[in-house]
Design goal:
11 helices; alpha/beta; monooxygenase; FAD; microsome; about 425 residues; single chain; ubl conjugation; FAD/NAD-bd_sf
Length: about 425
């Protein structure tokens, strides 16, 4: 008898998890709280609680060639980098091709996922859902958590003294949809991730002035690399991977080469963007327009905000910008698993304790996996496919995980170590 698997969420991770379950002969049921598939990549004009939200202009940072699933290339007439509507179209085609919609229960919210009383021997889970005001409970042999991590906004207002006095408008980047309505404004964007950079660039075409405040700086890459090819097609090759592995023994050379490559497009120091720690850092920003908008003066790079007044922002370097109308907090998201007991997936300081970013290491049975809670340098879509393929094979017993001690040691090491996400060559 096929094992029953509960898949939570019908975004990208949920869809590919459904396919992998079917491929392995498992019996999946997907619970999706909204009326449609697509998750993060389905743009809606209004922000909805419990659902990821994107702005209208979002374009993929990775190319279609490197972002498609392993057995399903994107249509040839699609552009190399895809608007969110095109990506959603691809996921719809994918779902139809593999007949995945029949496994999805739409407008169904997962209220709780708890261990079955005999979990230590069966590894089963009791899943309680609600649809149209009616609660239901079912037992599953395994669970795949595909709910995403761009839902609960992180707004550290305590880090911005004076915010309570500020008379202008402020909101999290999750609430931003399009630049209309910001004409002639003086806008402060806090953060220097991909969303912050996209929003700052877009607003700078309508606003009187945009400021972007960064604590640590960031490397900025273009989608266009050598000879006009997409950056990830140039970067992610077997040769470069092999070369990077060889150079990993010579850290000084590797760091020097990485810095040289990252500054080939423009010298980050001249733009106020050079990371404080040039070698160990977060995910780089992919933005084709940010340097030129800074050159135009449409965007001004500022240091960390130390205080806000009724109308102005005071920065760490002592400068002050007056007449600020709007503050956009592009300060990321907080991991949240409201349907899980805290003991199942532990979150501390916005870090999740998961073996290889997937498996809770302390469970007696490896029957729960989190899919898509990772930020690779490159496309997340083939990454989540590999995660789903591994998880389903673990559920079937075809793959086994190491001991709890080994998994905990690996997880602690990963969480403590600031991983160098930038390879030696960046095209």
């Amino acid at each position: 008898m096929a094992k029953k698997v509960a898949v939570i969420g019908a975004g990208v991770s949920g869809l590919v998890s459904l396919k992998c379950c079917v491929d392995e002969g498992l019996e999946p049921t997907c619970f999706e709280r909204t009326e449609d598939i697509g998750g993060l990549w389905r743009f809606k004009e209004n922000v909805e609680d419990g659902r990821a939200s994107i702005y209208q202009s979002v374009i993929s940072n990775t190319s279609k060639e490197m972002s498609c699933f392993s057995d399903f290339p994107m249509p040839e007439d699609f552009p190399n980098f895809l608007h969110n509507s095109k990506l959603l179209e691809y996921f719809r085609i994918f779902a139809r091709e593999f007949d995945l919609l029949k496994y999805i229960q739409f407008q169904t919210t997962v209220l709780s996922v708890r261990k079955h009383p005999d979990f230590s021997s069966s590894g089963q889970w009791e899943v309680v859902t609600e649809s149209n005001g009616k609660k239901q409970s079912a037992v599953f042999d395994a669970v795949m958590v595909c709910s995403g991590h761009h839902i609960l906004p992180h707004i550290p207002l305590d880090s911005f003294p004076g915010i309570e006095k500020f008379k202008g408008q402020y909101f999290h980047s999750r609430q931003y949809k399009h630049p209309e309505g910001f004409e002639g404004k003086h806008i402060l964007v806090i953060g220097l991730g991909n969303s912050a950079s996209d929003i700052a660039v877009e607003l700078s075409k309508k606003a009187a002035q945009v400021f972007i405040s960064t604590r640590h700086g960031s490397w900025v890459m273009s989608r266009i690399s050598e000879d006009g090819y997409p950056w990830d097609m140039v970067l992610h090759t077997r040769f470069i991977s092999m070369f990077r592995n060889v150079l990993s023994r010579f850290k000084i050379i590797r760091k020097w080469m990485m810095e040289q490559q990252m500054n080939r497009w423009f010298d980050h120091a001249n733009y106020g963007l050079q990371p404080q720690n040039k070698h160990l850092m977060k995910e780089p920003v992919v933005n084709d327009d940010l340097p030129s908008r800074i050159l135009y003066g449409a965007i001004k790079v500022k240091s960390r905000v130390i205080e806000l007044t009724e109308t102005s922002a005071i920065f760490e370097d002592g400068t002050v910008e007056e007449d600020i109308d709007v503050i956009v907090f592009a300060t990321g998201y907080t991991f949240s698993f409201p349907f899980l007991e805290e003991s199942v997936v532990k979150v501390k300081d916005n870090t999740v304790s998961l073996y290889k970013y997937m498996f809770p290491p302390h469970l007696e049975k490896s029957t729960l996996a989190c899919i898509g809670f990772i930020q690779p340098l490159g496309s997340i879509f083939p990454t989540v496919e590999l995660q789903a393929r591994w998880a389903t094979r673990v559920f079937k017993g075809l793959c086994t995980l190491p001991s709890e001690k080994t998994m905990m040691a690996d997880t602690i090491k990963r969480n403590e170590k600031r991983i160098d996400l930038l390879p030696t060559l960046c095209g």
